[in-house]
Amino acid sequence: MIRNIVKLKQRHKEIKKQCDASEDDYTAFEEKKQMLTLVSKVENSAMVIYDMYKDEFIFLHWQFDESFHFDYRKNNSEAYWELLNPNDLPFVLETEIKAYNFIKRIPSEEKKDYKLIYEYRLRDASGIHHHFLHQTIVLELDRNRNIWLFLLLIDLIVGKISNKPIQRMIVNLRTGKSCLFNNRSFLSQREIEILGLISQGLDSHEISDKLFISVNTVNNHRHNILSKTKTETTIQACYYAKRIGII
User: Fold this and answer.
1) Quick one: which of 141, 149, 244, 238 has its CA closest to 198?
2) Domain chopping of the chain, boundaries
3) Tens of pLDDT along 35-75?
4) Which residues touch 106 (CB under 8 Å, ≥6 apart)?
5) Which fold has domain 2-179?
6) Where are the alpha helices (DSSP H) in 130-229?
7) Cβ pair 40, 47 in contact under 8 A
């Protein structure tokens, strides 16, 4: 396993050599920092801008610092990996490598249309691991139209069942379709529809009447939603679905 992690880290580093940002790129980004600061104050997530060229976090709104001791002095992905559950590190590295290679092959004008969503566990100050939801979007390209800046949104998932497998997907923001990873275990269109109605406060009987299906069918969908989102209540499932933007 250690040898595999070393190889994955090396492949991860090779990715970063494919970017070439200029002073003009950084000047243009500085003009956007004020807007990001305002957004980060109202966003109930950790917000990070990762610079592929420098291998640094050049913008960081980290709201979990009291519980999760992130080493700001290192200010790069290695520091973040130190918080990861060791069993999740190969999964995270492989996910990021595959996602980058997938988006790299997409025409430059479409690169910002995709969002990577995945989960992992981070260790808090007492040594307990908690589930987090991680979303990555291409924010800026360099002068050669290569990926330069990533926007990362990181959420603590309350009530996540820790003994179930973590999941990942890439979503096309224009079409809503997932791609690259095997997402057969994720929500169907009917389950998304029902979860949306649950989030509006409808109970199973009301959903049954609205969709012209039986109450038993609705309840079966509710059970599948909890199983697929790996949550314990529909409130948690709704929160999860809203954070990744499917309802």
Assistant:
1) 238
2) 2-179, 189-244
3) 887 777 776 678 889 898 888 888 888 776 567 766 655 66
4) 113, 114
5) Beta-Lactamase (3.30.450)
6) 189-199, 204-211, 215-229
7) yes
Spatial distance between the Cα atoms of 121 and 210, rounded to a whole number of angstroms: 38
State the Cα–Cα distance between residues 86 and 103, nearest whole angstrom: 27
CATH number for the region 189-244 comes to 1.10.10.10
Q: What is the DSSP letter of 76?
A: S
Q: Is 211 helix (H, G, I), strand (E, B) or coil?
A: helix
Q: Which amino acid is at 173?
A: L
User: How far is C-alpha 69 from the chain's CA centre?
Assistant: 20
pTM: predicted TM-score of the whole model, two decimal places: 0.79
Which amino acid does the sequence have at 162?
Answer: S
- Is-contact 56 75, C-beta < 8 A? yes
Give the type of residue at 82: E
As a whole number of angstroms, the distance between CA 242 and CA 234 comes to: 12
> ∠ CA(217), CA(182), CA(156), 5° rounding?
80
Sheet of 46-51: strand order equals: 56-61, 46-51, 147-156, 129-141, 114-123, 168-172, 178-179
> Tens of pLDDT along 16-36?
767 788 888 888 888 787 788
Of 3-7, 81-85, 141-145, give the lowest mean pLDDT range.
3-7
pLDDT-derived band at 128, boundaries 50, 70, 90: confident
